From TrEMBL:
Taxonomic lineage of the native organism: Bacteria, Bacillati, Actinomycetota, Actinomycetes, Micrococcales
Protein name: Carbohydrate ABC transporter substrate-binding protein, CUT1 family
Signal peptide: 1-17
Native organism: Cryobacterium psychrotolerans
UniProt entry keywords in alphabetical sequence: Signal, Transport
BP GO terms, sorted: maltodextrin transmembrane transport; maltose transport
Length: 417
């Protein structure tokens, strides 16, 4: 997932000048609110996930406007690189969108710019969100984000390589993973047992696999906790994997995207992947025999790293609450939401959406993992600094630096903000 689904934390990076792909500047509370008998205009700001994004939203809007003659929706599509700058400029100019699709929302909530989601969706829509996504959509116990789409991670296994190495069981624990990966690496010919991407692209994501897998994590909305005994166990096992030759060379500088290409080429036994990985294999190596499995953990307890993007509703002048509610309830109805999220190749965040998609064999393993999903503490104001520290420092684990020293250094960067 592009971004931050990038299915690491979902963080929009500010960069470049804003270039609108559709629509024009929003007027915040200046557009008609319907009180004078004219149509209410809702301004919708979204990022582009794919070449399909604009067309998918245009279809939703066309259907919505046909069913709600008194409401029009103006769409603006931005790149993820531009989104943060664009919305910041709009908010500062009193031209915030009425509805926005984004990642982090804690700052807007702290400035009291957003509606609590319970104020802009029906009780049925609110209750349809999967419980595992509600906490990550909330600040101080109040839900401000409507979970839009999700991604989860899983262990992709090259079944032929494991069979060639004499491994008969997909590993569920770290010890089993180490044993299996070591055997696969001994095949030789440039084959690696486990793909370990600790390079800057998604160092925080691979770290989370091991930290959460040891019962640790990154903290919560109020406190970042990196330097913990549980995380140390994860960090030390990363080093154990490297020292045993169970991973690819130079794991500390390897990014996830090029490493996934190597897996698709059939040169890695096991790697953590995402729902789009299924499509990559279908396109790049359709003859590969592979399986999608739960992520191995220290004790074998189920876990996945989840990421969710959200819709948020700005209060502006407070006159469009009813129209916003109509639009969100319409969008989250299964006949609108399921085709949308399916076309974008992500996972649904609603219970009805999951039920509707549970026959999709490619997505089913990920859907089954969602109830056990753990999330980045993206509502913590120090998360951005923490994320940056992981990207620049955690690769040292694969280069022989003392694990405790690495965790302490990351914690110090996080505390400094």
């Amino acid at each position: 997932m592009k971004k931050s689904l990038r299915m690491g934390g979902i963080v929009a990076t500010a960069a470049l000048a804003a270039v609108s792909l559709a629509g024009c500047g929003f007027g915040g509370g200046t557009a008609s609110d319907g009180a004078d008998g004219k149509a209410t205009t809702l301004n919708l700001l979204v990022p582009s996930y794919s070449d399909n994004t604009q067309g998918l939203w245009e279809t939703v809007i066309k259907d919505f406007e046909a069913a709600n003659k008194d409401i029009t929706v103006e769409l603006e599509v931005q790149s993820w690189d531009n989104l943060n700058d664009v919305v910041t400029t709009k908010v500062q100019g009193n031209k915030a969108p009425d509805i926005m699709n984004g990642g982090p929302f804690a700052g807007f909530a702290a400035d009291e710019l957003l509606y609590p989601i319970e104020d802009v969706v029906s009780a049925d829509t609110l209750g349809d969100f999967q419980d595992s996504f509600v906490e990550s959509a909330s600040v101080d116990g109040v839900q401000y984000g409507a979970p839009l789409l999700a991604s989860a991670r899983a262990l992709f296994v090259n079944e032929d390589l494991l069979a060639q190495a004499g491994v008969t069981k997909v590993p569920a624990t770290w010890d089993e993973l180490l044993a299996a990966a070591t055997k696969v690496s001994k095949i030789g010919g440039g084959v690696a047992g486990y793909g370990l991407p600790l390079g800057s692209e998604e160092a925080q994501a691979e770290s989370a696999i091991w930290f959460y897998g040891a019962g640790g994590g990154f903290g919560d909305a109020t406190e970042i906790t990196v330097d913990t005994p549980e995380n140390l166990k994860g960090a030390e096992f990363i080093q154990k994997m490297v020292e045993a030759g169970a991973t690819q060379p130079d794991a500390g500088a390897t990014d996830r995207s090029p490493l996934m290409d190597v897996f698709v080429q059939g040169k890695i036994g096991m790697i953590i992947g995402l729902p789009p990985t299924v499509g990559q294999i279908a396109d790049g190596n359709p003859e590969m025999k592979y399986s999608v499995n739960p992520i191995p953990t220290m004790d074998g307890k189920p876990f996945t790293l989840g990421v969710a993007d959200h819709l948020m509703a700005f209060q502006n002048d407070g006159k469009k609450q009813a129209a916003i509610t109509k639009f969100l309830d319409f969008f989250y109805s299964a006949d609108q939401y399921v085709p949308w999220v399916t076309a974008e190749k992500f996972l649904p965040t609603t219970k009805s959406g999951s039920s509707a998609m549970d026959s999709n064999e490619d997505l089913l393993p990920f859907l089954e993992m969602l109830p056990d999903a753990q999330f980045y503490p993206s509502t913590n104001p120090k998360w951005d600094a923490t994320n940056a520290a992981f990207k620049s420092l955690v690769g040292q684990l694969a280069q022989g630096k003392d694990a405790q020293a690495v965790l302490s250094e990351i914690q110090a960067k996080a505390d400094a903000g």
